[in-house]
């Protein structure tokens, strides 16, 4: 029986075989005295270059997707809203740049009122009776006149304290704000984090064994769902949602036994989340603690060092945030409830906030269910995603659901209907991660039925 090389030589000739497999040509063998020519082994730099080339090719499509995403959001920038919360983050950013409180407040107010004037003008351009009229400067002037003395309301110290305890987002944004202005600077940081969030999800899906195309689909879903709609606004949602995707990547690595890598990514994501909004980081840590405990109790194959690390890091973060909050007297659950039911302390505090929370949640979720029954734009893809995650791996379903459930938990704590889409944006992470996994499962099972073979389970 001929070897593979002999078969190729019969069909191609010795000269072309040498070119194809790295051997010697006839002239080289003659020059070598007929002993045969052995090329020098490839050096380590050549192997590194090949690996870098493969990685570059692998990042070409995700990079193109990210570029398109960024370009679209740059185009949409005038339509983004500089909100009351954005004003407060901008004021903190200017203070980090060295401005006094009064100067920072004035600059942030100018940015807010300019955006208010732009919003009014955009509405005028769509008014069939006024679209030909010149721009009215009065909205900007009224905004400045109403708020210049005391700053943009609500300005109760208890409400201001909530934003003063969220330092990391305005701190990161400060150089961008100084260079680009308040709205553009805050939006740039949010856009950077959200773009990175798509890559975190891509990396998590690749670790789970998905093909490059299906992983890019997950990246695309991250960019076209409310994860990006809210994540690219000049708000803290961008860093928070991006860190949830990073936590997913770290948790997957831990469940696969890559303890050092997983622990580093997971801890860094929790730390950034805590610096941006400590209450959200604590909530994510609590849901992940529950997920890790459930795995250790009910899923035998996850009883290994990586899962214990996931449990320890999550429970430890929950305890550390609670301790720091107590020692520094940070606004807690009671302050959050009073903030909701007193309209940021513009009304008197309520006597029974927990009872009011229960009652308002009852009204909120009943009407939300009716809305979803008419147009299940969230519920239907969410159900498909959860089904795909569960079919793939129970531990994976627990992890992704725990991260997405932080959005539901946030709405339960703040059942404010007109803010609900923003507050539960994190739940779309389940859809962005679960739909590509469902599609991968469908493809795998179709291949198995056709070939009559079984494949080992991929993922944690």
TrEMBL record:
Q: Give TM segment ranges.
A: 58-77, 184-205, 214-233, 284-300, 307-329, 373-390, 397-417, 423-439
Which residue intervals are annotated with compositional bias (Basic and acidic residues) in the record?
8-19
Can the keyword Chloroplast be found in this entry's annotation? Answer: no
Keyword Protein biosynthesis included in the entry's annotation: no
Q: Where is this region: Disordered?
A: 1-49
Give the top-rank taxon of the lineage listed in the UniProt record for this protein. Bacteria
What keywords are annotated for this sequence in UniProt? Membrane, Transmembrane, Transmembrane helix
What is the protein name stated in its UniProt record? Glycosyltransferase RgtA/B/C/D-like domain-containing protein
- Organism, by scientific name, is Streptomyces kasugaensis
Taxonomy of origin reads:
Bacteria, Bacillati, Actinomycetota, Actinomycetes, Kitasatosporales
